[in-house]
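FYI - complex with pyridoxal-5'-phosphate, inputs then prediction.
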Amino acid sequence: MDQDFLSLAMPQVQSLSPYIPGKPIEELQRELGLTKIVKLASNENPLGPSPKSLAAIEGELKHLTLYPDGNGFALKSALAERFSLDIHQITLGNGSNDLLDLVARAFLGQGREAIYSEYAFAVYPISTQAVGATGIAVPAKEYGHDLSAMLAAITPRTSVIFLANPNNPTGTWFDRQALSAFLAAVPDRVIVVLDEAYTEYVGEAAFPNGFEFLNAHRNLIVTRTFSKAYGLAGLRVGYAVSDPAIADTLNRVRQPFNVNSLALIAATAALSDDEYLQRSFQTNREGLALLAEGVRALGLDYIPSVGNFITVHFGRPAQPIYQALLREGVIVRPVANYGLRDALRISVGTLAENQYFLEALTRVLGSVHDGARSPDSTAK
Ligand SMILES: Cc1ncc(COP(=O)(O)O)c(C=O)c1O
């Protein structure tokens, strides 16, 4: 068949490697016919949604013939109230992923550069390349952002810098002082995106709240999501907070109804459920400690994390371990696409899920043939 039309795709799209999501439970069920499957692969909230979100969705179902409020007034008002923001600072997205894409479409393109860290969230290079801009991946420092090196990478072509705090998949973070110094040193003409997708899980006293820097830095965009600690990954809703002029710019490239009505109402309800948020935090704290202790007891090294996941080194190619875990009914996340071939990322589950994973891993490590040592295991 003549496929000449494929060459019509923009060159940057032809060479793009798509995002690799965690394996869906149903897919593994189809493949292996397993009945019990534990998915710790996509940094999802293991508690199920907030009862308040579920109740709100039920009430909204009968209105599904109507378009959603394209301006998301109720959710924006709730966010503004909760975080003492001006409603005009807020842009809503179909997940915070959508907002990263909107930033790229609004501020990047051919001839422009975006800076992000090595091992930073995979969507930054994808969104950058998709619009024909050049991504500059700055080597990481102990798996975290090397903010000085990122500053040094700024050129006259730099339009956007993506920061993830904490970062996925490493779980690393930087403190208030480091962020403050970084923002003070970035030229005003460069947009800084501070991705705080996991901020609600962080308990460290020195961890910064990006919102506090917005007044002093009009080039700053803080993104957050309802997918993680608020437990609504399936509905897709996130938000960006910025100077109203930036929000106005993002709004120009936004789809008119980018956040659906169930997502809007469920997120508004989730925001009012402090008990749920606290339970998400506590469950995660305990689970993270259990997983860290469990893998340490198995003689494994891991990257200390403040997110709802932990990346574990195996000192050898991790793919066979990933496969063996699948056969045990446990889905985790390979991170070879980040250059971490000797590691797997494990999302924090419920207590029972975390224990199930550790038991499965113990069996797997006892049986998986010791493959060749990977370069990652020695390059730490
Ligand atoms: C660092 C980071 N930012 C953003 C996102 C996007 O999440 P969502 O689009 O569900 O808000 C993720 C999801 O895993 C993430 O890890």
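Residues 5-35+275-368 form a domain with the Aspartate Aminotransferase, domain 1 fold (CATH 3.90.1150.10). The first strand starts at residue 38 and ends at 39.
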